[in-house]
Each structure stands twice: as C-alpha cells, then as structure tokens.
Amino acid sequence: MIVTLGLVGAVGANVWLTDLVYNDLPQAPLPPMDPIAGGLDSATCGGCHTQIHSAWKLSAHGRAHLDPLYLADFRDQGEPYVCEYCHTPLVEQRAQVVSGLWMAWPAFVPQTTANPRHDPALRTDGIGCVACHQRDGAMIGPFEAQGSPPHPTRKEALGVELCRPCHFLDLKVGSELPRPIQDTFGEWEEYRRLGGEKDCIECHMPRTEPVPVALGGPPRLGRDHRLKGPTDVNFLRSGLVVRAVEFGDQTATVTLYNGSGHRLPTAEPQRRVEVILEALDGRGAVIASASESLQRVILLPKLIESADTTLRPREERTLALHVTADSARSLRVRVVFHLWDPDHHVARAAGLREEALRVPVFSQTKALP
Ligand code: HEC
Ligand code: HEC
Ligand code: HEC
Ligand code: HEC
Ligand code: HEC
Predict the structure, then answer these.
(1) Which of 111, 219, 223, 252 is 20 to 30 Å from the Cα of 27, by its Cα?
(2) CATH of 233-367, one of 3.40.50.170, 2.40.110.10, 2.60.40.2150, 3.40.640.10
(3) Helix ranges, 59-205 (H)
(4) Atom of ligand 2 nearest to the CA of 142
(5) Pairwise CA distance, residues 274 & 207, whole Å
(6) For ligand 4, is residue 67 a contact (CB within 6 Å)?
(7) Which is nearest to 65 in space by CA: 40, 34, 89, 43?
C-alpha cells in the first residue's frame, strides 16, 4: 500500500514537473501554412524577388539550418526539439509534432508524433521568406503592391515585434539566471529607455537604393535582407567603438563605447570581446601580454551566471591594462571579437578553425622612447 501510494505520488510529481518544464519552453511560433505563391520554399519567391532572395541566402537567417556551429551544437545536445522552433520555424520544416514531455529529468523525452505536413526539402531553408511575410493567407509588406503578384498581398509594416519571439527567451524552471538566457529584445528595450532611437530593422536591415523588389516592378526603397551582423567588420565597429587609447610605460587605458542597440556582446554566450595589451621586442615579437574579456558566462547544465561583464547599451567603459617587460621596444593594443572558443568541443565538431571564429576590430602600436 505504502509502495503503491508512493508510486502514484511519483507519477503525479512527474506529470507536474513535465508540464511545468514543457510550458516554460518555447512553443511552435507559427501556425501551419498552405502555399499561396506556388511553394513555401524561399527559392520559389526568388523566381521574382531575385535580389532579395540572393541577399537573404547569404544572411544568418538564410543559413540558419546550414550553420556548422548550430548543427554541431544541436547534435551535441541530443537534437532537442525546441531548437527547431527558432532555427527552422515553419511547422512544415519539422519531421515531428511535439505535444508535451514524457520526462523532463534525468532524461529529456518529448511526446512526439510524425508530422503529416512535413516537407523534408524545406529543412535547409532556415528562416525563410514566409516565416516573416505570410500571415493569414497574404504576403505582408510595407508597400501597396503593384504589377500582378501571384499571391494576395496586404500592406502592413513589419516591426520589431516580428523579431521578439526568436530573439528573447526567458527560461524560469531550473534557472538561476538574473536575466533571460537570450535577452537581446529586453536589452534593446533598455537601450530605448536610455534614449536610443533606432529599432532592430533600421540597424540590421538598412534601406537599399531604389530597386524593383519584384521582377518588372517599380523601383522602391527596400530593405537589405543580407542582415548585418558581427562578421561584417564595419558594422561591428559601429557597435564596438574604440573611443580612446592612452599608452604609458608599461600600461594602456582603452575606452570602449557600446554603439549597438543592446548589450555587447548580446545573445550567444560564447561571444566575447577581448582587449589585449602586448609588449613587443625590437623585431616585433610579443614578449609579454595582458588581456581583459567582456562576456556573459553561463554555466550549464544548471544555468548559473558566473560572470557578466558585457557592455550595457550605450555604456562607455575604460579598461586599464598592465604588462611587465623591461626590454619592450613598443606596446600594442588590440581589440578582438570572438564568435566561439576554438578549443570548445562544439567548435571542433563544427570543423571551424580560429581564423573563422574571430573578428579583429582594432589595433594600434606605440613605440617606446
Ligand atoms: C528562442 C529562439 C531560439 C531557440 C529556442 C534556440 N535558439 Fe539558437 N539562436 C537563436 C538566435 C536568435 C540566435 C542568434 C544569436 C546570436 O547571433 O548571438 C541563435 C544562435 C545560435 C547559435 C550560434 C550560431 C553561430 O553561428 O554562432 C547556436 C550554436 C545555437 N543558436 C544553437 C541552438 C541550439 C543547439 C538550440 C537548442 C538547444 C537553440 N539554439 C535554440 C534563437 C534560438
Ligand atoms: C511570379 C512572381 C512572384 C512570386 C513567385 C512571388 N512574388 Fe511576391 N510579389 C510579386 C510582385 C509582382 C509583387 C508586387 C511588387 C511591388 O509592388 O513592387 C510582390 C509583392 C510581395 C510582397 C509585398 C511587398 C510590399 O510591401 O508590397 C511580399 C512580402 C512578397 N511579395 C513576398 C513573397 C514571398 C514570400 C514569395 C514566395 C513564397 C513570393 N512573394 C513569391 C511577385 C512574386
Ligand atoms: C527575419 C524576417 C524576414 C525574412 C526571413 C525575410 N524578410 Fe522580407 N522583409 C522583412 C522586413 C522587416 C522588411 C521591411 C518591412 C518594412 O519596412 O516595414 C521586409 C521587406 C520585404 C519586401 C518589401 C521590399 C523591401 O525590400 O522592403 C519584400 C518584397 C520582401 N521583404 C520579400 C522577402 C523575400 C522574398 C524573402 C525571402 C527570400 C524575405 N523577404 C525574407 C523581414 C524579413
Ligand atoms: C523565426 C525566428 C527568427 C525571427 C522571426 C528573427 N530571427 Fe534573427 N535569428 C534567428 C536565428 C535562429 C539566428 C541565428 C542563426 C545562426 O547563425 O545559426 C538569427 C540571427 C540573427 C542575426 C545575426 C546576424 C549575423 O550575421 O550573425 C541578426 C542581426 C538577427 N537575427 C536579426 C533579426 C531581426 C532584426 C529580426 C526581425 C526583423 C529577426 N532577426 C527575426 C531567428 C529569428
Ligand atoms: C543601434 C543599432 C542597433 C540596434 C537598434 C539593434 N542592433 Fe543588433 N547589433 C548591432 C551591432 C552594431 C551589432 C554587432 C555587435 C555585436 O554582435 O554585438 C549587433 C549584433 C546583433 C546580433 C548578433 C549578435 C552576435 O554576436 O551574434 C543579433 C542577433 C542582433 N544584433 C539582434 C538585434 C535585435 C533583435 C534587435 C532589436 C530588438 C537589435 N539587434 C537592435 C546594432 C544594433
């Protein structure tokens, strides 16, 4: 009897825990969709929206399901279904439908059924055109459509609310984080409170020259679908601004300013800004160095934040670095943006080398008297 009661109690607690965890995780972001322009794949759209399609294909959204780091991380974590809600957001992109969890701990076991709407060809589309543009049987966009589109259109501005569901994630169960694990949208709201005026789209999808947005259409001031990000060094420099560098005998002070619209770095916790002071000998070889990192460090699996030295929106910060090297002939300051630690097992599984994982932002050398 005691044993039976104990078992009922354990089953009850498991249902309670699995429901709690399931409801805390992201839900499928979009309803099922029927094609209204010949197909749900972005290549179909590319037949007429040629320039936008070629720009999108190169973007992080176009490559979201081809990105070696994502694929390596996804496999490393046992392919949890939730990743796909943001990285392959259409119902039709996913092989399984998930309706709950059988178990949340110690193993993570979702309740799945085969998805009758699944189209395997859509998987590599990543975040495709219809994920952002197809709503209630029409394509939404900023203009009154001209020409004869093969699909219904509706004039409706796409605002930052479009970006929020994927660029903000607040896990509460089992998390001891002081702020959401993925907080770009919340950080942007802080940027606005601090007087920042731009939105995600103005910075990341700046206006293009007037060009037809569909073959044969009138020239329009469209938006750059390449999506600017940290691998575009000029764009990165507009966010990671080196305002001043002052050298001493064995020291340097470096003043940074965050000109982006959120924290810097934001989102992916592997991102790191490194500020380095190096002492060089007469031949330019490094004989001593010191560095400081700006990064949010989150320890898994328990989700504990062990450090957060990211720059707040619009923050200016001065770092002081010191090296001891009496024979130094010059000092050099460098600022580097690291996408991922090359020694991390996920980066190694992705087959990416250090050069592909860092973006040099700044370098200045001063000869010593
Ligand atoms: C709430 C939406 C969301 C979910 C769920 C999600 N991601 Fe992401 N992921 C993003 C966004 C947005 C970015 C881009 C952030 C950035 O560039 O820093 C990203 C970036 C990444 C990156 C960095 C890619 C690169 O090139 O550096 C990896 C790796 C990644 N995600 C893996 C995963 C895995 C694995 C899961 C599931 C365990 C997952 N993501 C779940 C939204 C999500
Ligand atoms: C046969 C050609 C053709 C195909 C295929 C096509 N479109 Fe269009 N689309 C047009 C034309 C023409 C317009 C009107 C352009 C204009 O007004 O400048 C248009 C307008 C749009 C607009 C509205 C722009 C605005 O603000 O008015 C969106 C969004 C759009 N298409 C998305 C898509 C997507 C997504 C797909 C693929 C699923 C697609 N289109 C497939 C021809 C096409
Ligand atoms: C991450 C979301 C997102 C994706 C993916 C996306 N777009 Fe857009 N698109 C936008 C935004 C935002 C605008 C600008 C809306 C505004 O100005 O109100 C836009 C604008 C447009 C316009 C109007 C003309 C212009 O350039 O402003 C067309 C047409 C269009 N997109 C087609 C496409 C096609 C085709 C694809 C796929 C190849 C695509 N979009 C992928 C978000 C997206
Ligand atoms: C359906 C989910 C989804 C939506 C909607 C979405 N994003 Fe993303 N975004 C992602 C994911 C996932 C990544 C990371 C892909 C990767 O690198 O693996 C990403 C990456 C990015 C990046 C990084 C670019 C780079 O070069 O590294 C930027 C910037 C970005 N998104 C801006 C936006 C903006 C602005 C909007 C709204 C107009 C938006 N996103 C809407 C999921 C989304
Ligand atoms: C004032 C311009 C500005 C605004 C507004 C802005 N960003 Fe950014 N964003 C940047 C700059 C500059 C970078 C490159 C520096 C970096 O990666 O942190 C960046 C980087 C990113 C990245 C890539 C982070 C990484 O390291 O991979 C994502 C994702 C992103 N922004 C999403 C957004 C979203 C979503 C919004 C709106 C909620 C937004 N941004 C608003 C300027 C802006």
Answers:
(1) 223
(2) 2.60.40.2150
(3) 68-76, 81-87, 129-133, 184-193, 200-204
(4) 26
(5) 32
(6) yes
(7) 89
The partner residues of 308 in beta bridges, in order of sequence, read 296
Q: Ligand 2: which of 33, 48, 134, 148 to mutate, judged by most atoms within 8 Å of the beta carbon?
A: 48
Closest ligand to C-alpha of residue 210 is 3
User: For residue range 47-102, what is the model confidence (pLDDT) as tens digits?
Assistant: 999 999 999 999 999 999 899 999 999 999 999 999 999 999 999 999 999 999 99
Residue 357 contacts residue 340 (beta carbons within 8 Å): yes
User: Within the chain, which residue ranges are assigned CATH 2.60.40.2150?
Assistant: 233-367
* Ligand lying closest to the C-alpha of residue 146: 2
Q: Closest by alpha carbon to 199, among 188, 210, 186, 209?
A: 188
Residue type (1 letter), 160: V
Cβ neighbors of 171 (< 8 A, separation 6 or more) are 24, 25, 177, 180, 181, 303
Beta strand pairing call for 296-299 and 304-308: antiparallel
Pocket mutation for ligand 2, best pick of 92, 153, 205, 221 (most atoms within 8 Å of C-beta): 153
Q: Any idea which ligand is nearest the CA of 229?
A: 4
- Residue-wise pLDDT tens digits, 70-85: 999 999 999 999 999 9
CA 101 – CA 14 distance, rounded (Å): 10
Q: Is 267 in the pocket of ligand 1 (CB under 6 A)?
A: yes
Q: Which residue owns the Cα nearest ligand 5 atom 36?
A: 200
Residue 257, ligand 1, Cβ within 6 A: no
